[in-house]
Amino acid sequence: MDAGCLSKVLAFDANRSMMSDYTPFSPSPGENAVSINQIVMIVAGFMVLLSVALTHFVHPNWMWFTVFIGANMFQSGFTGFCPLVIVLKKLGIGQEA
Question: Does the keyword RNA-binding apply (predicted)?
């Protein structure tokens, strides 16, 4: 590392946070804040965490719930078929990405 690069690293502006350039998504009035794909990923992640917790704290057979979620995510990646998307569309939740 040369002296010029090192001086740039050492001259880090402590008043500037790492998130200063971040602007959260703000939807227009009447527009949904998240897409259907985001909702699916949130629900899938929650279900995986829930099933692992149930496996650990309740009974080892809950692991089959984790396997089901993983298999559904796997097939959805190839086929594009996701039951949750159908339910969300019928409920009018989320927006197309």
Answer: no
Q: Give one word for 94, left, alpha or beta, with left for phi > 0 and alpha for psi -120 to 50.
A: left
Classified as helix, coil or strand, 35 is: strand
pTM to 2 decimal places: 0.63
Whole-angstrom distance, CA of residue 36 vs CA of residue 40: 6
- Sketch the domain layout of the chain as residue ranges: 3-91
